[in-house]
Design brief:
Length: 142
């Protein structure tokens, strides 16, 4: 389990990430509409959705960990946050790849599946951790 200081830092990172996703989404809706194609704007919004939802999920994991009813490994949370940032940053790069001089950014799309795979892995690990916690709970003598 993370100590209180690390838990506070991770929570702050997650909350900050949600704030960033909201700000970027507003920027995308108003400032990028005339700059990006509709397809690239959708990629930009998808990056925002994943950044927000996965960080909300990370907060949920922190809450579950804090109950001490679930033995959730810290790696699950680290993998989720890392995967989310890799995935979202790759999508942001792809969204801007159609702008003059930034076409090289289109190759960031090749990195997105790594982030996506890490996110999937984190949620599968969470399910395993929860099931194992339930098994330990049922085997503990009362």
């Amino acid at each position: 389990m993370f100590d209180q200081k690390k838990t506070t830092r991770v929570l702050a990172l997650c909350v900050f990430s949600i704030a960033v996703s909201i700000a970027l989404d507003a920027f995308g809706a108003h400032g990028l509409k005339s700059i990006l194609s509709e397809q690239k704007l959708e990629v930009f919004h998808k990056a925002n959705r994943y950044l927000m939802l996965q960080n909300m999920g990370a907060i949920l994991i922190l809450l579950l960990k804090s109950t001490n009813k679930f033995h959730i490994k810290n790696q699950t949370l680290v993998i989720l946050i890392l995967g989310t940032w890799i995935f979202s940053m790759a999508l942001y790069a792809v969204a801007f790849s159609e702008l003059n001089g930034l076409s090289i950014l289109r190759f960031a799309g090749a990195i997105a599946p790594i982030g996506g795979t890490l996110m999937i892995l984190a949620w599968v690990l969470l399910a395993v951790n929860v099931l194992k916690s339930h098994q330990h709970e049922n085997t503990d003598p009362a």
